[in-house]
Amino acid sequence: MAQNPLKFKKLLKQAINQIHARQDKPKSVIDDELGYAAGREGRTAIDYWGRGEGHIPDTPTVEKLAREII
Question: SS3 for 7-70, per residue?
């Protein structure tokens, strides 16, 4: 599978926006929760993956994020 950091960044942002709309939580709280669910130290990982041209974490981390988002 070809990696596309910009697409990952866009999809992650869409997921955060949808969670925000459904749960009426601040996006910073959502970022923290997703970061912790991915096994990281809160929102800093989410910020990093969405910075600049985007970054894609390793496959196990993407799987953890997907499970948490669903």
Answer: HHHHHHHHHHHHHHHHHCCCHHHHHHHHHHHCCCCCHHHHHHHCCCCCCCCCHHHHHHHHHHHC
Cα–Cα distance for residue pair 14/18, rounded to 1 Å: 6
Give the span between the Cα atoms of 62 and 66, in whole angstroms. Answer: 6
Tell me the Cα Rg of the chain.
11
| The predicted structure's pLDDT at residue 46 | 93
- The pLDDT tens digits for 18-62 are 999 999 899 999 999 999 999 998 899 999 999 988 899 999 999
